[in-house]
Amino acid sequence: MSTDTKGYLDMDLLRFTTAGSVDDGKSTLIGRLLYDCKSIFEDQWEAVEQSSKQRGDENVNLALLTDGLRSEREQGITIDVAYRYFATPKRKFIIADTPGHIQYTRNMVTGASTANLAIILIDARNGVIEQTCRHSFIASLLQIQHIVVCVNKMDLVDWSEDQFNKVVSQYKEFASRLDVPHIDFIPISALLGDNVVDRSENMDWYKGSPLLYTLENVYIGNEHNHVDARFPVQWVIRPHSDEYHDFRGYAGRVAGGVFKQGDAVTVLPSGFQSKIKRVHDINGDLEEAFAPMSVALTLEDEIDISRGNMIVKQNNPPESSQQIEAMLVWFSSQSDLEERGRYTIRHTTNEVKCLMKEMKYKVDINTLHKVENDRKVKLNDIARVSLQTSAPIHFDRYRRNRVTGSFVLVDEQTNNTVAAGMIIS
Questions:
Q1: Backbone angles phi, psi at 115, to 5 degrees
Q2: 250 strand-pairing partners
Q3: What gap in Å lies between CA 195 and CA 301, rounded to an integer?
Q4: What is the pLDDT of residues 60-110, one digit of tens each?
Q5: CATH number for position 212
Q6: Maximum CA extent, the chain
Q7: Three-class secondary structure of residue 36 per DSSP
Q8: Are 152 and 124 in contact (CB under 8 A)?
Q9: How far is Cα 100 from Cα 103, in angstroms, rounded to an integer?
Q10: What is the pLDDT of residue 156?
């Protein structure tokens, strides 16, 4: 069976996140998408109708389709990241509905970390506000290549083209300082469904595509790095049976590049070299494997390989160092970042101890200015830091590869994840 028919190609699946300020209508928009795409079960719809009546809502509250926690329903806000799945004949989708409140910025980072596209909602009445800037900067920091700015609640500004253009102008002025190659602007009403799935009759001045058409057709084929071959070993397969007593396979997920039978490879950190004997998955042998496929490799030579090692092409190794600089998003509410503090760094399938050498500066998310005189990094802060690891890690810069360029920090005392990092150098 060819790899093209196995559903591995990312063209089949779009992961996107929604972000925006409180009450901008993120959950309502997702509810509208699910409802208009007929991705709601009858019992779900009945439960939402009942909850809407209990709350005293005039219409069925579509936001309740995604606000799953009881505390979220009672307060009418999104607290945690809610993942929803739906499909159209053209594409499958995974939505991460992220919170708008400033105190849940870390949740937004978590939901957006694997996204191909970010939908930024802006209330047409309020225009670009602090949270718009915050979420757009995080999307840029996470190297999300596509942003769709949905100017929502157009029904509350009488479907005004002038108001839409004013918001677009505000956003473009801020976005000129961001690293996002592709931005679309769509005027919508999530509550009424205008320009969400179907084109709006109330805004005939808008000549672009509705949101669903944009999501179905955005090109994300270049999201993965198919140049630098990277295979972090997750598991060594040694079946204890007579039939396979000589078998030794290395299972994992391809983080970059393409691996084929006969490729000359190097195993890091040992530096031993070999050639790929077979590439296979649960269905049998494959001609090739590429990101983000999960496969097993077997090599021609018996080499001591364990979890945390990385198999790469001989002529194209990653960077290896014990000194790294990174942008860090602080997740912990119990502890602040400590200079000279000791943490565990989890990078791909590898885990090593590290020392926080220096906090260089924080970023003011609203102005994008460096803050060098405030040395305290606490919950939801973003900072540039320098780390020293106890053993070399093998990485690419985050801009080049989101998988091999990212990591999390774990507090050694509590075993809590305290930060997520993107490697700069």
A1: -80, 145
A2: 236, 297
A3: 58
A4: 556 655 554 334 344 444 445 667 888 888 889 988 877 655 555 677 777
A5: 3.40.50.300
A6: 75
A7: helix
A8: yes
A9: 9
A10: 93
Are both 163 and 83 inside the same structural domain?
yes
Same domain? For 198 and 280 the reply is no
Is 0.85 surpassed by the pTM of this model? Answer: no
Quick one: 98 and 241 in the same domain?
A: no
Q: Please report the beta strands in 60-175, taking only residues with DSSP state E, as ranges in sequence order.
A: 82-87, 92-97, 117-123, 146-152
Q: How far apart are CA 383 and CA 376, in angstroms?
A: 10
Q: What is the dihedral of CA 200, 204, 205, 210, to 10 degrees?
A: 30
Helix, strand, or coil (residue 182): strand
State in Å, rounded, how far the first CA of the chain is from the last one. 40
- The encoded tokens of residue 205 equal 């001045």
User: Does the bond joining 292 to the residue before it have cis omega, within 30 degrees of 0?
Assistant: yes
From the CB of residue 374, how many other CB atoms can be counted at a distance below 10 Å?
12
SS3 303: coil
| CATH code for position 266 | 2.40.30.10
Q: What pLDDT does residue 74 have?
A: 44
Q: % helix / strand / coil in the chain, to the nearest 5?
A: 20, 35, 45
Of 251, 279, 313, the position where a domain reaches its end is 313
The residues near 329 (Cβ < 8 Å, ≥ 6 apart) are 105, 106, 109, 138, 141, 380, 381, 382, 419, 420, 421
Determine the structural domain holding residue 307 and report its residue range. Answer: 230-313
Q: Are residues 50 and 176 in the same domain?
A: yes
The parts of the chain modelled with pLDDT lower than 70 are: 1-11, 22, 39-82, 99-105, 240-246
The continuous run of DSSP H or E covering 167 comes out as: helix 161-175
Q: Which amino acid is at 178?
A: L
Indicate the number of domains in the chain. Answer: 3
